[in-house]
Design a protein that fits this description.
alpha+beta; globular; 8 helices; 241 residues; 23% strand
């Protein structure tokens, strides 16, 4: 099944993410803490924690940092109590944006997110204003050149919902959110290592941006990314790289 050509955009996003490793560690510590608090400190019985630990390993986070975050979340070590908040809004040309945050100060966070939207041509929406345009799912992205037939067979056998191929040969495996850890593990056991693996809000349709609008939209997304309490941003905007 053919999908939107997105591999250049994925590589650009991954490079930008890798360049902010210090912030990535901060985000992962929050995620580890909240995952442990909500589902317990045992990754074998807590898929969300298992995924956070895997991401921490991929980001080369020291194991001591991971352990302390889990201990804070499970209550064996004192720490900050974070809450999860989701904001929704619109970017350039009405593009939909979902901003997932973890914060110990809701008032500070909403002020900073609202400022980022308004400063760069977007605006905050009400709860549910754009979420209906997205589907919560797991996503694994594999580089062009991956054996498509073998990957598709392994993915579907592991319980994946769909396998999509873009024009550049990149392959996208979609799972139900709670099946994601099991599918990821099964594919790794079969020798398939994803370039990007995450749970996210996947847009039903996409808006491709180019020229000045692409520059403006990227500035808005970057401003939101720079808010300390932001964990993840989901959008139906595709920046034409």
């Amino acid at each position: 099944m053919a999908g939107h050509s997105k591999w250049a955009n994925i590589k650009h996003k991954k490079a930008a993410t890798d360049a902010k490793r210090g912030k990535i560690w901060t985000r992962l510590i929050k995620e580890l803490t909240v995952a442990a608090r909500m589902g317990g400190g045992d990754p074998d019985t807590n898929p969300r924690l298992r995924l956070a630990i895997d991401k921490s390993s991929d980001a080369n986070m020291p194991k001591d940092n991971v352990t302390r975050a889990i201990q804070r979340g499970s209550g064996t070590l004192e720490g900050v109590n974070y809450e999860e908040i989701r904001y929704e809004g619109y970017g350039i040309n009405g593009a939909a944006i979902i901003v997932d945050c973890m914060t110990d100060n809701r008032i500070r966070t909403v002020a900073e997110v609202r400022h980022a939207f308004s400063k760069h041509g977007g605006n905050m929406g009400t709860e549910g204003s754009v979420a209906f345009m997205f589907k919560h799912c797991g996503q694994l992205l594999f580089a062009p050149g991956t054996n498509e037939d073998a990957l598709m067979e392994a993915a579907l056998e592991a319980g994946a919902e769909d396998v999509l191929t873009d024009a550049e040969g990149g392959i996208e495996v979609i799972t139900a959110p709670y099946d994601f850890p099991a599918v990821k593990s099964a594919l790794e056991a079969a020798g398939f290592k994803a370039e990007v693996a995450e749970t996210l809000m996947k847009p039903d349709t996409e808006i491709v941006f180019s020229g000045d609008d692409a520059v403006k939209m990227q500035k808005l997304l970057d401003a939101l990314e720079d808010v300390d309490d932001v964990q993840q941003i989901h959008t139906n905007a595709v920046i034409d790289a």
